[in-house]
Amino acid sequence: MSAAKSKGTDFLLAVEGLTVSFDGFKAVDDLSFYLDPKEIRVIIGPNGAGKTTVLDLICGKTKATAGSIKFAGKELTRLKEHQIVHSGVGRKFQTPSVFEDLTVFENLEVSYPQGHSVMGAMAFKRDTAVIEAVEEVAETIFLMDALNEPAASLSHGQKQWLEIGMLLIQKPDLLMLDEPVAGMSVAERKKTAELLRVITKDHTVLVIEHDMQFVGDIADRVTVMHQGKVLSEGSIEHVKSDPKVIEVYLGH
Amino acid sequence: MKSSSPLKWFGSREGLYYLALAFLLVVILPLALDPFRLNMVGKYLTYAFVAIGLVMCWGKAGILSLGQGVFFGLGGYCMAMFLKLEASTPEATAIQSTPGIPDFMDWNQLTELPWFWEPFHSFSFTLIAVIGVPVLLAFVIGFAMFTRRVGGVYFAIITQAIAAILTILIIGQQGYTGGVNGITDLQTLKGWDIRTDEARTTLYFVCVGMLFLCLFAARLVQNRKLGRILVAMNAQEMRVRFSGYDVAAFKIFVFCLAAAFAGIGGAMFTLIVGFMSPSFIGIVASIEMVIFCALGGRLSILGAVYGALLVNAAKSGFSESFPELWPFAMGALFIGVVLAFPNGLAGLYRSYVMPLEDRLFKRSKPEPKTASAPAATKPSAEKADDYDPMITTYSPEKS
Fold first, then answer.
1. Which residues of chain A make contact with B236, given a CB cutoff of 8 A?
2. Residue B160 and residue B168: Cα distance in Å, rounded?
3. Which residues of chain B from 324 to 383 reach within 8 Å of chain A, CB to CB?
4. CA distance to partner chain A, nearest, from residue B50 (Å)
């Protein structure tokens, strides 16, 4: 992995000089970082550091004022949200956003990467490939028994898993998760960590998280953000012992 | 629909609802009503086309349009222009200073037919225009609004403004449009007198036929993945977008679909009523159309048909006896729907009548596994049916 890093072109995601300004306030300020394929990167930092904004910028929800986001050699800053999804970037939001009126099966089916155009959605058929893909993902996210339940009846933690499942079925190369264990019970946290370990076998994952123990459990590398900039970057031990990090984040 | 045989579908609960509506419209009403009243029912039904479109656009996809009268009117005017040209032969208009053009043009000192009237000599062009013109306008509006992510109240206000603009335009351009009187004195369709009782009865049945075509088209969309995306978009637009869908394209599609239905309704209106005027397409008319949809149940395409029928029948009834009270009754009705039964008649039906049906069904045929279980087992049994075919019947109200 570290050998690939030095070459520069082998990064899955290369964020360079990324800046976004809201009425003069720079939420993200000249930010650069790089993700290797199959890496698990966790972004931490105090509230308002711009963590969620970075994910918003990568997935196209917010447009960058300056800078570049290269994903697998493709510039993302000029693409529309659905095109970014089609390039292989999946985004999970902080609050679970699933389709409450639809069943778990239908939630996953809607996310299945086929029939994305209007006519495609009209012609879409629930064939065995779809059913198999849905069942496979449902198994992974512990919701096999809830396939026919409406998503509204799921617990908070299950909804978070379902949304992760909705990303998984898209088969993205990069998964971005915004506080996946927030509001979860201890048991659910454990299961989620287990889930993430399964996922990270064949995905690159970018996670925002506050729970330092959880971060230590999953992260390959940690990026600490503060006031829109990178404060520190490296292994969990490295950032934990970094005096700047202790001052602005861990110390409090 | 492809997966199971049509016969089986007619035996299903949903199929029976369609059959019941067909029975009401094709057998009961024609037998019970004289040609005059039947013609009025036909007129009410033309609004049902708009209401079905609103169910798809507003109820399912959450796009409230307060300007559906525009598309209804465009469809209606396209048909009226064809009929007017047919009625304005040089022989029939020999007393005019310019024979061969519609009478109102002559009154407004026009001496030749405007260019945009010319294609309406052709019936096939007219039939295409009845759907094409409303869809084209809907596409332009939809493209301009939805790609810029204009939605909700703002979109509703803009559609309302468009309804106002179109009315003003039509009234102001009297020589080209017939002005506030509209296009009147329509007589024949391809030589067939549309003013006789027989013709009106025939047109009523044509209208019912077209209505069912639109119902089936709407049902097809609603039962495909497309329909699920529309509903999903309503609740979680962001999630749909980040599941890889171009939300604007889906919104434009459903808005155009609603416009197409409204256009067909408008054309049927012109044929059944015998004229078209700006009063049927303006702001008030457009808002009334939303009320038909809301009362019937904005999530149910069949409900929309009943909503259009009932509100219009009540309107006629009221206006005949207490004309000055109707606006208040209409207002009260709308407040009642919003406060007391937000899902309209279809919602009431689902929560009060369907459980009764369930009990009847259960008694008549033995349930294999869940005979002792209470009513809650029925939905899950239905769900299990849904899981199997490629089309899921989606019903948003589960209670």
1. 97-99
2. 13
3. 380, 383
4. 22
Is B14 among the domain residues?
no
Does residue B1 sit at the A interface (CB-CB below 8 Å)?
Answer: no
Question: Cα distance from B230 to chain A (closest Cα, Å)?
Answer: 10
Give the torsion through C-alpha atoms of B335, B336, B340, B342, to 10 deg.
Answer: -70
Looking at residue B363, its pLDDT comes to 59
Q: What is the ipTM of this complex?
A: 0.88
Q: Is A208 left (phi over 0), alpha (psi -120 to 50) or beta?
A: beta
Q: Are strands B188-189 and A229-234 parallel, antiparallel or unpaired?
A: unpaired
A91 contacts B225? CB cut-off 8 A: no
Q: What is the mean predicted confidence (pLDDT) over B387-394?
A: 37
B94 touches chain A (CB under 8 A): no
- Is residue A3 over pLDDT 70? no
SS (H, E, C) B142-174: HHHHHCCCCCHHHHHHHHHHHHHHHHHHHHHCH
Which class for B65: exposed (0-12), middle (13-18), buried (19 or more C-beta within 10 A)?
Answer: buried
Q: Where are the domains of chain A?
A: 38-62+79-250
Chain B CB contacts of A168 below 8 Å: none
CB-nearest to B253 from A102, A118, A147 is A118
Is the pTM higher than 0.95? The answer reads no
- Judged by a CB distance cut-off of 8 A, whether residue B245 touches chain A is yes
Q: Is A116 on the interface with B (CB under 8 A)?
A: yes
Q: Which of A221, A251, A218 is CA-nearest to residue A238?
A: A221
Range of the domain at B49: 33-366
Contact B239 A170 (CB under 8 A): no
Answer whether A117 touches B (CB < 8 Å): yes
Give every CB contact of residue A166 below 8 A, 6+ residues apart in sequence.
Answer: A98, A107, A108, A110, A111, B239, B243
Question: Measured on CA atoms in the order B212, B214, B217, B218, is the torsion positive or negative?
Answer: negative
Mean pLDDT to the nearest integer, B67-90: 96
- For residue B69, what pLDDT is reported? 96
| CATH of segment(s) A38-62+79-250 | 3.40.50.300
Amino acid residing at B244: G
Q: Distance from B190 to chain A by nearest Cα, in Å?
A: 36
* CB-CB under 8 Å, A97 with B238: yes
> Which range has the worst mean pLDDT, A190-204, B56-70, B92-106, B289-303?
A190-204
Tens digits of residue pLDDT in B267-300: 999 999 999 999 999 999 999 999 999 999 999 9
B394 within domain boundaries = no
Asked whether the beta carbons of B54 and B295 are under 8 A apart, the reply is no
- Token pair 């069912």 in the structure block, residue: B212
Q: Does residue B146 belong to any structural domain of this protein?
A: yes
Say which of A93, A99, A116 has its CB closest to residue B245: A116
Q: What is the pLDDT of residue A4?
A: 41
Contact list, A106 vs chain B (CB under 8 Å): 228, 392, 394
For residue A108, give the chain B residue with the closest CA. B243
Residue B89 is assigned to a structural domain of this protein: yes
Tell me the CA end-to-end span of chain B in Å, nearest whole number: 26
Residue type, A132: E
Q: What is d(CA B45, CA B383) in angstroms, rounded to the nearest whole number?
A: 33
Q: In this complex, which of B232, B241, B247 lies closest to A110 when CB atoms are compared?
A: B232
Number of domains, chain B: 1
